[in-house]
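Quick sanity check, Glutathione binding-like protein:
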Amino acid sequence: MDLFFSPLACSMATRVALYEAGADANFLEVDSPTKTVLNDGSDFRAVNPIGLVPTLRTDEGVVLTENAAILQYVADRFPQAGLGATQGIERTRLHQWLCFIGTELHKGLFIPVLDRKAPQETKAYALEKNLSRLDYVDNYLKGRDYLLDHFSVADAYLVTVINWTMATPPIELSKWPNLKAYYERLRQRPSFAKAIAEEFELYKAEQARRKAAA
């Protein structure tokens, strides 16, 4: 299978899930500004017209988009890794967390704050409205190791998103001690440690390319 990704973007959650599953995959880096697949110079929009990562092309050639859907596919595709949840309320809770992370944290809080073109008023509004979501997660994680009763793709997504606090000074993780402890513990997990190290190096190379092109 092929995972189209950009360094340290939300697509890193799928890289983590694939590492957890011990799955073979081709990792194809997408240059965000140009939508070029760096591995071969092709136009990423020929695969995903919207041009957003992650995009996963399965071994059968099916193209999947949207982080929550791709993560659930990986969990179902490799059940031996235990990254998903069985039918019933636990699977619903997994859906709940993937939706919450994607809408309330990823798009609602972090995207406006990370957007270099967003007006300061927009950033301030996003912080005022959505920081309470971190309060909710922090309170939920008190006395818990994971979002479910085991490590799941929801944890892969949450840690990937919380990793962005390194680039968002207004969101100081120390204000949420349970979330901070959770993040620091899980980023030491081999799958996360490997993914973060690899993608950080790619991110530095990406920034160097942009500086040279400016």
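Posting the structure with no commentary besides this: Helices lie at 12-21, 67-77, 89-114, 120-140, 153-162, 177-186, 190-213.
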